[in-house]
Fold:
Amino acid sequence: MQNTTSTRTSRIRRFFPVAMVVATAALMVAPASGMAFKFGSELTSETQPSNAGDGHDCAPNPGVCTWAMNEAYGRPDGGHKSPFTGKLKQVRLIAQVAGTAKLQIVKVNGAEQAKVVRQGPTINYDGQPAGDADTYEIESFPVEIPIKKGQSLAIKTSSTSLVRCSSGGPNSLLFQPPLAQGTGFRTADADDGCWLLLEGIGKKQKKRK
Structure:
């Protein structure tokens, strides 16, 4: 079980040398030709954490709960599920304000039920810089968690602003008390029309010869 806080890796800053920027970009692109895959919400610098405010509390009651991704922003129709078995290498998020959440890997079924299959690290995120902006900061955190095809991302927290709230429907499933590893499927206590702005980047497991 991972209990340590993730290390934040920030977007490339403008004062970096051009050569370093090019080299970093090359490293980011290279895995796409081989074993890398993405799932969860599709995040870009134009993805706004709309109506996130100072954070959304758990429902139906205040307290700690699990927010499980049930649909991904920008990747609907199963895009919230890992498309391959392998290792989750990085999680990315866009949040409005600073906060803390524990990453969870869950299995969600079609009856709005879920169970935790793995616990991830605690993530401390910074949110957006002060002032108005036309683009939004994406925060990245390295992880090393086994994941199987069909599993999804979730967070355990009492309040979160890494959401985009501009639609209805059960885009997120809320479980209170939070989901715990080693227990079976539970039916959601509530659902929420906000999408979790959370994205996973994994490395596909190599097939054994």
